[in-house]
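Give me the fold.
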Amino acid sequence: MAGLQDLYKEIIMDHFKNPRNRGELPPPACKAEGFNPLCGDEIVLYVNIDDDGVITDIATGGQGCSISQSSASMMTAAVKGKTTDEARQLTDDFKAMMGIGVDEDGEPGDDEDAIAAAKAAASSGDAGNIAGAAEKPDLSMGDLSALRGVKKFPVRIKCAVLSWNTLLEALEQASADA
């Protein structure tokens, strides 16, 4: 398993040092900004969506830790060319991988719920079994699977999901502007 963890670390650092889709897009791109006050991560996201609801271009800017910036890079690569519905589904899938999803009652969870669950699991020594988390690696997640281990570090979950929450804000803004 150590070899897989080393590979995941390598993928995360590659996206951090060589971010994909880095920069700005000119208007009419939707612009959304996200901020994580816990560690100072900042994400600026630019999204172009065509009339068919396809994300034709996406770019990210900002600064922060390797987790937030590599997650943003991976996210832009994963959603580019997808419909907004597919991007929303991928966001749900990613958040489920982070332990954010539905709670025991089937109600939508939030970042605070995930952090509380992760802390409880970590303190009980069961960080690999957080409610709502995917049990096995999903190969369809591609490079995003490298971030799977973040759920073991509760304070870093917000770093990993910052760009995804910012994407949802951009998609909401785009649908309101349409």
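DSSP finds five helices and three strands in the chain.
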